[in-house]
Design goal:
By secondary structure, this protein is an alpha/beta fold. The chain contains 7 helices and 13 strands.
């Protein structure tokens, strides 16, 4: 079994170290991760500046680019084999609902999925790395389950997993969930630079808007590990005939 690990918090983050330690005996496990924190970089690729790969003393390789850069480089030239599984995380904070659109953690996993490889994005619900060993243990359990069931062969899939910050024996059984929704983000924060220019900082994510039963928000609030299957087809299939009628065209 060949497993590629990446993240968006950087190669020195406690989450990726814990994830590697949890998975390292399941096969050949390699880490290719960003040099620095790249949260909210989504699927961005670096196209207009060179990327460099270096190796840390612990064997992790790191790239001066985005999470998607790391996986892309690994799969298109850095590794001399195709991994059986791409795993991203463990992220410092939740990636639920609309977060998944922006998430670099999900972006790294999705890059593997786009290359036809099963992939999992792992996140902890709360920031601060509380009970990170428990989260890593739960990540290992899920990966082992996928391996035991033969789920890493054949059609690729993409899972988004959020784990409550609890001791391992207090995390409730996993629930398969749908993405919830958030309210709009909070207002930007403005400051004045030493040169008198106005600086803008992106505001915090909004509160949950749809956290009803069946969502990732609801499951994790109740203490369950949340597993959400994702896909990348953004087509609004149900409205294709309506738009064809509006525009006087035939739907595909």
């Amino acid at each position: 079994m060949n497993i590629l690990i990446s993240n968006d918090d950087g190669f020195q983050a406690p989450g990726i170290v814990a994830l590697y330690e949890a998975l390292k005996d399941l096969g050949r496990v390699e880490v290719v991760a960003p040099e620095h924190n790249n949260s909210a970089k989504s699927n961005a690729l670096t196209l207009h500046s060179p990327l460099y790969v270096h190796q840390a003393s612990n064997g992790f390789r790191y790239v001066n680019g985005t999470p998607a850069d790391c996986v892309h480089i690994a799969l298109t030239g850095l590794l001399d084999y195709k991994p059986d599984l791409v795993v991203s995380g463990i992220n410092n904070g939740a990636n639920m609902g609309d977060d998944t659109i922006y998430s670099g953690t999900v972006g790294a996993a999705m890059e593997g999925y786009l290359f036809g490889i099963p992939a999992i994005a792992f996140s902890q619900v709360d920031k601060g790395w509380g009970h990170i060993d428990a989260a890593a243990a739960k990540a290992r359990e899920l990966v082992q389950q996928m391996l035991a069931q033969g789920q890493v062969a054949g059609t690729p899939w993409l899972l988004n997993v959020n784990i409550p910050n609890q001791p391992v024996d207090q995390i409730k059984p996993l629930r398969v969930t749908r993405l919830g929704r958030r309210h709009s983000a909070e207002r930007v924060i403005t400051q004045t630079s030493p040169r008198g220019e106005t600086m803008y900082w992106i505001g915090s994510a909004g509160a949950a808007k749809d956290d009803s039963d069946g969502t990732d928000f609801h499951a994790t609030f109740e203490g369950h590990l949340s597993v959400t299957p994702l896909h990348v087809d953004l087509t609004e299939h149900v409205s294709l005939p309506e738009w064809a009628q509006r525009l006087g065209a035939q739907s595909a």
